[in-house]
Amino acid sequence: MTRDGSARRARRFTEVLSGLPNWVSLTAGVLAVLVGAILVVRPLTSLTLLALLIACAALVSGAGEVLGAREHSARDAVLALGWIALGVLILIASGPAIDLIAPVVAIALVVGGVLRLLRARRGTTSVRLAALLLGIAEIILGVVALRWPDVTLLIVAVLFGIRTVAFGVSTVWDAVTGRRATTSGAAEPARSRWAGSGRVLAAATALLIAVAAALTSAHLRSGTPRVDAFYTAPDEIPAAAGTLLRAEPFTRDVPGNARAWRILYTTTLDADRPALASGIVLVPEREAAEPLPVIAWAHGTTGYARPCAPSLATHPFESGALPALDQIVESGWALVATDYIGLGTEGSHPYLIGQGEGRSVLDAVRAARQLTDIRLADRTVVWGHSQGGHAALWAGLLAPGYAPEAGVIGVAAMAPASDAVGLVSRLPEITGGSVFASYVVAAYTAHYPDVDFNAYIDPAARTLVRQMSERCLAEPGVLVSVLSALSLEKDRPIFATDPLSGALGVRLRENIPAGALTVPVLLAQGAADTLVDPAVQSRYAAARCADGWNLDYRVYPGRDHIGVVAADSPLIPDLLGWTQQRLSALPQQPACPPLG
User: Is the pTM of this model over 0.85?
Assistant: First the structure.
């Protein structure tokens, strides 16, 4: 079949359909408005239903293009049939290939916008102007969907819904005003002025919304922290872990009565893999007569990607939920806060992987002691919250054999992710839990060769899970990841296989902090915590007491995961008093929950 023959067939097809009664065009326009509106106002539906809605929007858009054709060119036919083909394709791919729908629709918006711009050279002034505005809007929406910091089916659905509503309004207006199936240069009906104005108004509205979406996208992207040259590895790296490589003064959000530095130092992921990590060292401004006791801070979850280091954040000490910063300074203690490996520096971040986390904490203390402007004592109390509580417990376990010179004399773990198995098993039940699950899967599949990403993540969720793992909790764009997680969780679990089975289950169990820990431990838990289950925490604490740990387990009624370390939490005075007792070498009386 020749190209000219195909074009003639396509034109005949559009001519036949466009000759249908006017109410058919009106119906197509109304359907476009309804489906588009549902996509915009109800994006947090299941992924499968969302894909079906997008397919319906594409189908009615194609039908509307045909029914509202003013000319019957091959380009008109391509545009109309393209939208219909896209709708059919989405219906076919709404199962295992659902994660491909977002980029396909985004590309279709760009292509459709370009074709519409080509059509803007023909017809009356209002027709050309409306085609120009709507074509530009479609291109902007398509580009935003492709370049959005977290390209998801959810975002594409909202953007495509906006486009579909605008197109439907234009189609309805044409049908109501009788402006349909006229050829280029033909006289417009009596109501042509009103028809043209309505069409242009709908297209202009779509363009304004598209521009707003682009500006919002730019704002979200601008909130992503930027990794600067400080975090780049030097040409020569010493083999010894805990070596200070680089230090410079740090002032962002530092209290007025303190001074700080950010540091880059060597560490190890495990027994034989060298790595780099960064962090912050903060001390009181006033000179101290004696070396300063050290609080080694292990921060809570900030993300998995490289820009998620607290030292890169706008508010570095709030990132990761550090409690009692002012009291640390007033007490005359030094703060050594690691970013961990892979946050700031290159490499895979060991999220809830004990060896890498614990070594980052201990080597930060060793490196901080090499700063020439301060003197740090050989007494260190490790604090940690959430992920950092997991890291703090591992630092306590590793210190005697790995870094005895760090001088760890106590560990305070606050709402720690102590039982990784219990935490991961609960994530599918927690609103937004898929975001944290994405961090776990990203870390474990990068760190352990026997843990296969594709073996555990549902095919329909793989793209979304990968993208969620790339977003930091402190940046504005994380809202997109949370909304994506909510959409995922309404449809299906992200796991195709039980994460507690096979290699992933084995590795999760390996990273539960257990074994011989000889220094006093404070384990604090909020009774209203919905992320770390208080019952799971109590069982963990009882098991560690049975192992012989010197454990003081305290539960705080009414406190949730973050509330337990809030400024008004009763934990804060307890934590400060408990820390002072460790620094004063006072004995601790264990306080254990009942076993079982």
Answer: no
